[in-house]
Amino acid sequence: MTKPLKGLLIGCGFFARNQLHAWSETAGAEIVAVCDRDAERARSYAAEFSIPAWHDTAEILSSGAFDFVDICTTMETHEELVALAVRHRVPVIVQKPFAPDIDTCRRIVANAAEAKVPVMVHENFRFQKIFQRIRGILDSGEIGDVTFGRLSWRNAIDVYSNQPYLLQTKRFIIMDVGIHMLDLARFLFGDAGDVSCFAQSVKEGLAGEDAATILLRHHNHATSIVDVSYASHRFPNPFPQTLGEIEGRFGTIQILEGEVLQVHSDGQQRREIIQNDSRSWTSSPWTQIQDSVPRTQQHFIDTLRHGGDFETSAEDSLKTYALAEAAYRSAETGRVVDARTL
Ligand SMILES: NC(=O)c1ccc[n+]([C@@H]2O[C@H](COP(=O)([O-])OP(=O)(O)OC[C@H]3O[C@@H](n4cnc5c(N)ncnc54)[C@H](O)[C@@H]3O)[C@@H](O)[C@H]2O)c1
């Protein structure tokens, strides 16, 4: 049997806990050290997850001890940390949002491409079981070519307790959860160009927007609506479900609460309930998101080992981040912005 790839995880904060659980289930890889500039955080995650070593500086990447690095810090740190990994030729998986703006994303991609160091963006929503199943239905041709889609994330989850930095983030919900929806829109409906967007700041005292309505025109002439809000009071709270519908030339898929798909085709309808895998460490309400993390990381490791392209390679993700950039520029100017011109 080949030896597992040895990884370093940088950023022992809120979401890293899910990634460390997920790494313990990822075949062909093991995390051999964690790092946080806050030494106490690194030490405590190393103890909790029985990881042999911890460090308080990412410079440890120069040691030659790592086959990959998992960067789970917030976006403003990614350019510097990915550049450090690239300098030491260590393949990277880096959390979304990739970077605060499209120019920074492009600099990161160009630097890694020049050194031929593989970089994948940790974009886990497309690895949720429900979206893998929808992709399967679309690929089967059952509803025909997509003509319209809507992806809707509306809830009032208190994101601010676990991620207090979001209160001060100027580019907030479009970068935080909108980016997941824009990746899903590309995954399910195809690449898009024209973008228009209205953004709102509903909760008082935020630095950025906590709601946005985005309209996309896809290259295949499908249109889609992506709407996101952290200010939608619904009982029970639908977090973290992405709801919506997908219309094709012959049928429709509705994405309903309770992780239910209602598929209309051939003059009939059927319901499918999509169950998450059962894992000891997942818990409500986060289960659906947590469950997607091992699949995301397994894809990264399998691609590193066997070759091929990451589904959400840094380079491919430029198309997703161009849509987000276009959404911000549209919200600022009130105009339709073609993401291909940015
Ligand atoms: N994919 C998802 O479903 C999902 C869900 C939640 C958060 N996230 C993303 O995960 C990322 C991390 O979010 P979080 O809430 O865990 O953040 P966090 O602030 O809780 O944790 C980040 C950690 O990184 C450390 N850090 C920052 N810069 C560092 C550096 N240069 N070297 C070493 N350590 C450094 C900080 O000390 C902190 O402990 C964000 O980009 C966020 O958007 C993704």
Automatic annotation (TrEMBL):
Domain GFO/IDH/MocA-like oxidoreductase as annotated: residue spans: 131-235
A Pfam family matched in the record: GFO_IDH_MocA
Domain Gfo/Idh/MocA-like oxidoreductase N-terminal: 8-121
Family annotation (Gene3D superfamilies): Dihydrodipicolinate Reductase, domain 2, NAD(P)-binding Rossmann-like Domain
The protein, known as: Dehydrogenase
Organism annotation: Pararhizobium capsulatum DSM 1112
